[in-house]
């Protein structure tokens, strides 16, 4: 076994897999209180896939994409169409699902390349508006398609997958997505991507192929968004283009931001919690009260972003944060200044923090032999 | 003749877009942030007009109240949500602005409900010039928006405050050294932008009297597109982009084959222009420094 094997690096796989197995056993033994539970699980898995795939673009590459629902839309329509075409041949079966997922994912990834190309010339706000525009264009094209091709404004009628284990497929996809993204981010490619986020010019100067990495990130991200879209089309009877407006992209973005940008586990937790709350609140808050949910989300979003980013709150933030709280509970477990790489915040290059740490702890300066400023090399 | 009619319609729509786009572009130029919530200020203006109209019955009083209320709202939002984030990453500010946009929309829905409200402002009918038949409100919108844009241009060019705004957008630090209170200028910019959005809300209600909590979202995004096409940060650019988008929209609506794709065409133009000239038509190329 390798020396640097640490259980905490694999904890998310273990938790996701364990939950997946638990739910599968429950589904196969019919232990769920209502059949709706399966649909709710599917919703959660789709949200997790979307949030994790978006977090690569927003959290690690540092570009804002407001068109994630557009990629999902491509996947949902293409995957749905393939399933409609294959149903008479293969039936509503697992191979149909696999082929649909492959087609939906690959086409969405191709769109990712197409939208990634302008991304090479644009940054920040400009890229955000282009991705938003892309999402709206895609939606508009599907909305105005003819009745025979993609169903037009009435939506594409798709067969709902009749097996119980659709969410299990979703769990497996989440695991694959985690494996791809986490391994990518831990490799030298991941370093290159975070360095583009922190300073594109510096990354370029160091010889990093910015073009290549941006394209890779957009392709991977849109591929998994496409897969999420295919799962969506299999989970529903109907794919409606109105469901994929930029509001939905923003909802996914909210999950990523609330989970902590640059933290994959945070995105998973936030996506699960928000979708779960959505489902639960839908039954509690009905009618005019339903809007209360959006209101609270908006306030929470604003407060969290201000808390995390306001320059004026820097000292306050460093004093009272979750990390130091955990450290207080488990005394001396970890230096509060030390952050795991995947928790790196904006403007903070993980390696730099570690260098600072080394400089501040390892070198014990002796006051008598303190380093004097070099006076032209006379000493 | 139909071409001329379409053109006038396009200019009128474009005037409205240009006014919203000016709010985006001025805030971007001076505070270096994308105010995503700007579109929803239009909606707040619309609801203010609705409430005041129900009380008094005079559209112009409604407009004045909307301008005042939107200015207060814009400044309050700037102070509470954006000011703490000055100096933070642009992404953080943008996400906060998205949050504010959601906040305004959901607040409006909580107060007024989700069903659309109808506001009939002025029904002046049509004007006939030879074989031309144009609605009065189109002409009013056209003239009013161009007058407002002219006043704004003169204000920025020839008054001390206007020059101060240009100075802050060029170089905030240097402007401060010259004795300009840049915080006050930023506040003023938000106030002017919000007032323009309120006017745009008035014109939109003249065109179609339906009022809902998401009425500002799509025009907001289109105006933002217009601002980016013209080169964000540039005042003439926003006007040009707004008018361009307006004419494209009017022409596209006239051609039945592409009419359903109007939104897509406008966004496609944005993508093409950004690909050819990433800083927009009249935008200045900003060189990044390490």
Could you please describe the fold and organization of this structure?
The complex is a heterodimer of chains A (379) and B (290). Chain A is mainly α. Helices cover 69% and strands 1% of the residues of chain A. Chain A has 15 helices and 2 strands. The model of chain A is unreliable at 341-353 and 374-379 (pLDDT under 50). Chain B has 290 residues and is mainly alpha-helical. Chain B has one domain. Chain B contains 11 helices and 4 strands, in the order ααααβββααααβααα. Chain B has helices spanning 2-31, 38-55, 59-82, 90-112, 136-158, 160-170, 172-177, 182-207, 217-230, 235-254, 262-276; strands at residues 117-118, 126-129, 132-135, 210-211. In chain B, strands 1-4 form a two-stranded antiparallel sheet. A two-stranded antiparallel ribbon of chain B has the order 2-3. In chain B, a hairpin with a 2-residue loop joins strand 2 and strand 3 (132-135). In chain B, helix 2 crosses helix 8. In chain B, 52% of the residues are buried. The model of chain B has no long low-confidence stretch (mean pLDDT 88). At the A-B interface, helix 5, helix 8, helix 10 and helix 12 of A face helix 4, helix 9 and helix 11 of B.
């Amino acid at each position: 076994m390798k020396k640097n094997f640490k259980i905490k690096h694999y904890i998310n796989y273990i938790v996701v897999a364990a939950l997946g197995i638990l739910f599968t056993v429950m589904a196969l033994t019919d232990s769920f209180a209502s059949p709706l539970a399966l649909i709710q699980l599917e919703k959660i898995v789709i949200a997790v896939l979307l949030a994790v795939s978006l977090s690569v673009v927003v959290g690690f590459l540092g570009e804002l994409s407001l068109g994630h629902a557009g990629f999902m839309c491509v996947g949902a329509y293409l995957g749905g169409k393939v399933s409609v075409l294959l149903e008479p041949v293969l039936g509503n079966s697992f191979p149909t699902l696999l082929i649909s997922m492959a087609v939906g994912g690959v086409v969405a990834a191709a769109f990712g390349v197409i939208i990634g190309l302008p991304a090479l010339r644009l940054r920040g706000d400009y890229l955000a508006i282009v991705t938003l525009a892309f999402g709206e264009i895609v939606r508009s094209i599907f909305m105005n398609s003819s009745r025979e091709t993609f169903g037009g404004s009435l939506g594409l009628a798709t067969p709902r997958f009749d097996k119980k284990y659709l969410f299990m497929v979703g769990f497996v996809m989440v695991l694959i997505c985690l494996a791809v993204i986490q391994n990518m981010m831990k490799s030298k490619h991941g370093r290159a991507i975070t360095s583009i986020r922190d300073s594109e010019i510096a990354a370029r100067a160091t010889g990093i192929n910015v073009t290549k990495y941006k394209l890779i990130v957009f392709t991977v991200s849109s591929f998994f968004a496409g897969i999420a879209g295919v799962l969506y089309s299999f989970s529903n009877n109907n794919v409606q283009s109105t469901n994929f407006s930029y509001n939905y992209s923003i909802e996914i973005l909210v999950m990523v931001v609330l989970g902590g940008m640059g933290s994959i586990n945070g995105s998973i937790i936030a996506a699960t919690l928000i979708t779960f709350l959505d489902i639960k609140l839908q039954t509690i808050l009905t009618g005019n009260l339903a809007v209360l949910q959006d209101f609270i989300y908006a306030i929470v979003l604003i407060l969290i972003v201000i808390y995390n980013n306001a320059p004026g709150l820097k000292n306050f933030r460093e004093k009272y944060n979750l990390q130091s709280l955990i450290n207080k509970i488990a005394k001396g477990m970890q230096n509060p200044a030390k952050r795991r790489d995947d928790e790196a915040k904006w403007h903070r290059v993980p390696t730099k923090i570690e260098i600072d740490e080394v400089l501040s702890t390892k070198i014990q300066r002796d006051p008598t032999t303190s380093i004097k400023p070099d006076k032209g090399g006379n000493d | 003749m139909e071409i001329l009619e379409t053109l006038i319609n396009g200019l009128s729509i474009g005037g409205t877009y240009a006014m919203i786009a000016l709010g985006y572009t001025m805030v971007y130029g001076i505070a270096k942030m994308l105010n995503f919530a700007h579109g929803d200020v239009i909606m707040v203006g619309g609801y203010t007009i609705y409430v005041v109209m129900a009380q008094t019955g005079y559209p112009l009083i409604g407009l004045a109240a909307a301008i005042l209320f939107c200015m207060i709202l814009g400044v309050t939002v700037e102070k509470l949500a954006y000011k703490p984030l000055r100096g933070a990453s642009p992404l953080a500010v943008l996400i906060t602005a998205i949050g504010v946009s959601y906040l305004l929309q959901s607040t409006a829905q909580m107060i007024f409900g989700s069903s659309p409200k109808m506001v009939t402002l002025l029904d002046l009918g049509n004007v006939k010039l030879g074989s031309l038949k144009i609605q009065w409100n189109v002409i009013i919108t056209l003239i009013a928006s161009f007058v407002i844009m002219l006043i704004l241009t003169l204000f920025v060019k020839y008054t001390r405050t206007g020059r101060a705004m240009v100075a802050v957008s060029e170089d905030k630090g240097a402007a401060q050294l010259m004795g300009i209170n840049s915080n006050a200028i930023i506040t003023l910019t938000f106030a002017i932008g919000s007032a323009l959005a309120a006017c745009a809300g008035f014109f939109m209600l003249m065109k179609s009297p339906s009022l809902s909590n998401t009425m500002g979202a799509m025009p907001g995004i289109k105006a933002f597109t217009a601002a980016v096409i013209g080169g964000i940060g540039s005042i003439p650019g926003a006007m040009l982009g707004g008018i361009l988008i307006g004419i494209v929209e009017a022409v596209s609506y006239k051609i039945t084959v592409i009419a359903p794709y109007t939104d897509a065409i406008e966004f496609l133009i944005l993508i093409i222009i950004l690909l050819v000239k990433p800083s927009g038509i009249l935008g200045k190329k900003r060189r990044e420094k390490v």
